[in-house]
Design goal:
Number of strands: 2
CATH architecture: Orthogonal Bundle
Shape: globular
Distance between the termini: 35 Å
Number of domains: 1
Radius of gyration: 16 Å
CATH class: Mainly Alpha
Strand content: under 5%
Helix content: 55-70%
Length: 194
């Protein structure tokens, strides 16, 4: 598959990209996805799961769901807290890139999706933050990517990063509760373990 074909698939896979007003920002987000997809072992973008423990939920669907949750929650919070200023461009950028590195942290295996050696040797989302910065995105974007997970030790430095962090963990914990697994928000950083 060519990079142009990958670009088209990325643009079609994430409809919330069209909500970004800045065309350069959209281009940079798509370029990050194209780069990491090219480096991954996934032939189809939609084949990578959100987590090998939840193979029924694709990474693409997780990000699209989280985009709707975050933008909806931001709007509701601002409605009832008029003094709260939430940068929707920054929030959406963080949502679209927060799990970018899962394309190389998870790979197809003989028994189904499995965590890769990158996942075992580097905290989740570290590579995604690196790719975003290599693309020229601001360090604020690196913070929202890194701080969405406890595994990096990064602290959210904005209301947008805090919102993404909690809604992402909440979404994972809803799935974990459904399956009778320990909750991430209770047991700490056990992401990727049953």
């Amino acid at each position: 598959m060519t990079d142009e074909q990958r670009q088209q698939v990325v643009e079609e896979s994430f409809p919330s990209l069209q909500q970004l007003k800045d065309p350069d920002l959209r281009r940079d987000i798509v370029a990050c996805w194209v780069r990491v997809w090219r480096e991954s072992k996934w032939e189809e973008l939609g084949s990578c799961p959100f987590n090998p423990n939840f193979p029924e939920l694709s990474l693409v669907d997780h990000i699209n769901c989280l985009a709707e949750l975050c933008l909806g929650a931001a709007g509701i919070m601002q409605k009832y807290n008029p003094s709260l200023s939430i940068d929707h461009e920054y929030l959406l950028t963080g949502v679209l890139l927060h799990d970018l590195s899962k394309l190389v942290e998870i790979e197809p295996g003989p028994q189904g999706p499995e965590f890769s050696s990158l996942h075992r040797h580097m905290p989740h989302s570290t590579y995604g933050a690196f790719v975003a910065m290599a693309q020229g995105l601001d360090t604020r974007v690196a913070n929202i990517i890194l701080s969405h997970t406890k595994l990096t030790g990064a602290t959210p430095d904005s209301p947008e990063a805090v919102l993404l962090h909690y809604l992402d963990y909440g979404m994972a914990d809803v799935l974990r509760a459904r399956d009778g697994l320990d909750l991430l928000m209770v047991v700490g950083s056990t992401f990727g373990k049953k």
